[in-house]
Every structure is written in C-alpha cells, then in structure tokens.
C-alpha cells in the first residue's frame, strides 16, 4: 500500500503529481532534471535525490531538515512548489474517499485512513528500496576482475590523491554497510559564485522564523534562500551554504549533480573538485584543496564511480556513461583551463601609461 501511495497523484492539490513524478523508478528514483518541477509547472531550487538507500540516511534532504522518512514524506505533500495540497488533512480525505484504500488501511492497520498511517506506509515502502550488489561490491568481496583496471586505479585515487574518502566515507560504522557518505554537512563551493550568500543569510535571519519547519521547507524549495543550505536549519555561520554529503551508490544514473543540479556529468563534478573551488567563499570546507589530477586520473575516478551502479540499472548506466563521455568531449564547463591544463591563456596587453 505504501508503494501505491508513492505513485498516487491524488496526494497532490490538483491530482497531477505523485512522489514518483520526481522519484521515478525508471530513472533510479530521480527525475533526471537539474531541479524538480511540481504542480502547475512550478520550478523548485533543488535537485531530487534518489530514494534508493535513503533508509540509511541519518538526515533527510540536502540540508538535513528532518531525520525520519515519516517526517520527510509529510513535507512535499503540502509544499506549494511540489504537490501543493492545501493541507495534509486534504490529502488524507481524498485518499479516504476511495473504497479500495479504506479496505487496505483497515487490513494493514486495523483502523480508518489517517495521516500517521499514511505516512508510515510510504516510509515502509521506501525502506524496501535498498540497492547494492554493484560490480564494485563484487570487487571488494574478492572478485578481482569484477571492475576494469581503470576503475581500480580510480578506487585507489579516491582514497589517496583525490581525497574523496575524507567525506564520502567508506562505511557507516553504525550499520556496517558502505554508502560513501559521512552523514555530515560541508560547504564545497557549489552555487557560491551565482549568489550573494552573505546578504541572503541576513535576509533569512530577518524573515524566516527559526524552527518553523514548513516555512524552512518552502524557502528551501522555492526561494533564493535555498543556497544557504544547512544554515536554514541551524543558523550557525559555519553552516552557510553547506549541504549533506550524498551517498555515491548509483551516482552514474542519478544526475544532474549537486543540490542544485548545476553539473551535468561526472567529469564536471571532477573538474569542480580538481579546482578545490575556494573562490570568494570564506565558508569553504578545509578539506577542499586543489587536487592537480591529470586527465587520465579523472577518467579513472569516473570509471570507479560508474562501478557503483547496481545490476537493475546496468543498461541505463551503460547508456548514461556513453552520453556523458560524448557530452564531456564537447563541454567541460567546470574545467580549470587556466590553472592546471593546457597552454596559459594569452595575457591582455598592458594598459597604456
Ligand atoms: C516536485 C518533485 C518532488 C515530489 C513530488 C516529491 N519529491 Fe521528494 N524530493 C524532491 C527534491 C527536490 C528533494 C530534495 C529537496 C531538499 O533537499 O531540499 C527531495 C527529497 C526527498 C527525500 C530525501 C532524500 C535524501 O537523500 O535526503 C525523500 C526521502 C523524498 N524526497 C521522498 C519523497 C516522497 C515520499 C514524496 C511523496 C510524498 C516525494 N518525495 C515527493 C522532489 C520531489
Ligand atoms: C569536504 C567534503 C567532500 C569531499 C572531500 C568530497 N565530497 Fe563529494 N560531496 C560532498 C558534499 C557536501 C556534496 C553535496 C554538495 C552540494 O550539493 O552542494 C558532495 C557531492 C558529490 C557528488 C554529487 C552527488 C549527487 O548525487 O549529486 C559526487 C558525484 C561527489 N560528491 C563525488 C566526490 C568525489 C569523486 C570526490 C573526490 C574527488 C569528492 N566527492 C570529495 C562532500 C565532499
């Protein structure tokens, strides 16, 4: 029944948007867009993360504004930029008017349709969406040929020169599964150049009541304050523009990348890290450093990331890998051509005296 609710457009204000609209199983539970589009074509500010393995997240959302899947599920239903129901009660009564749901709620919970059971059914469905068994898992379990030589070099770089493991930690100690995340938040310089973050932080202090969860949710999805990230939740200076470290399983098929979907290929992501982007960003995480990775090393790390694709997305992954390779040949928008690669750009002539 949780699955049925996840695909249920009647949870939205105008009956057109379901959870699965933005978390589509055919796209590894994402929407493939830079940022999501809700009812009446309303465009949000954030990229839809996959729901695969979300059961292991200690915090939900890019800024960790809630911790449990039950708390999470309530917010998109009423967010005006997502499903836009006037209230949760409204959504519940649309579900209640369906005889089929009445019967199934009675069978599952022994009582009539209600908000709490509805949210826990959705959360229980999400808890079934574990996704492992990638070629990398076979490699790490001892099958030496499960991944390419390039991916093996990439795995080595991931843990050394490329410094990725500092945040995309190898195991979540509590549960002993490798998810490539640290359940923590960092400012890694994404979106900083496009926004005036300082004045936005002051605006948030003035206009947004701290701890008002629906207000924070609406601001995060539907306003420029979105770029403030974790700061919206904690109001700590050091959290300005910091976001949750996402897990990396199935990352090849869950692009575009980062909280704002601003990077289209894994090569763009690598170019960003290679610069260590600290330009005009006083809140940058101290673990972000220029990496000086050469082109073949970048290809190796991408090959490693691609080896984290679970078997049910192998075909999608092969197509996406080919697409990204082709795209990266014509566009490397994040690449630092001045500092690390190629001939130095021509200096402009000195100004006349
Ligand atoms: C209009 C598109 C849209 C709809 C509809 C939608 N989501 Fe999302 N979902 C998103 C976006 C965008 C985010 C990230 C928002 C943020 O972090 O601020 C997200 C985040 C999440 C997360 C957190 C994942 C993580 O790794 O932090 C979960 C879980 C989730 N959604 C489940 C649901 C469920 C359940 C529903 C239906 C009740 C739903 N979503 C409806 C777009 C959508
Ligand atoms: C200082 C901590 C830190 C380090 C070091 C780091 N990451 Fe990240 N990573 C993050 C955070 C935080 C995000 C989300 C940032 C955002 O969206 O603004 C992220 C996002 C990503 C994403 C996008 C995933 C998605 O679902 O959109 C990829 C891919 C990624 N990192 C790979 C890497 C690789 C490869 C390296 C090493 C070259 C690396 N990271 C190093 C913290 C880090």
What would the CATH topology of the largest domain be?
A: Cytochrome Bc1 Complex, Chain D, domain 2
Bound molecules: heme C
Q: How many structural domains in the coordinates?
A: 3
The H-level CATH homologous superfamily of the largest domain, spelled out, is: Cytochrome c-like domain
Task: Give the overall form.
Answer: globular
Number of strand elements: 2
The ordered H/E elements are HHHHHHHHEHHHEHHH
Q: What are the low-pLDDT stretches, counting only 5+ consecutive residues below 50? A: 341-347
Query: What is the second-level CATH architecture of the largest domain?
Result: Orthogonal Bundle
CATH class annotation of the largest domain: Mainly Alpha
Report helical residue fraction: 25-40%
Radius of gyration: 22 Å
Beta-strand residue percentage = under 5%
Describe the structure.
Residues 341-347 have low confidence and may be disordered. This protein has a two-stranded antiparallel ribbon with strand order 1-2. The chain has 353 residues and is mainly alpha-helical. It has helices at residues 2-6, 19-22, 69-78, 88-96, 99-109, 115-126, 135-140, 149-158, 197-207, 213-222, 231-234, 266-275, 295-306, 314-330; strands spanning 185-186, 243-244. It has 14 helices and two strands; from the N terminus they run ααααααααβαααβααα. The chain has three domains: 2-126, Cytochrome c-like domain (Cytochrome Bc1 Complex, Chain D, domain 2, Orthogonal Bundle); 135-187 and 245-330, Cytochrome Bc1 Complex, Chain D, domain 2 (Orthogonal Bundle), CATH 1.10.760; 192-240, no CATH class. The chain starts with a helix and ends in a 23-residue tail after the last helix. Bound molecules: heme C (2 copies). One heme C binds at residues 162-164, 166-168, 186, 188, 190, 243, 245-246, 248, 251, 254, 257-259, 269, 273, 285, 287-288, 301.
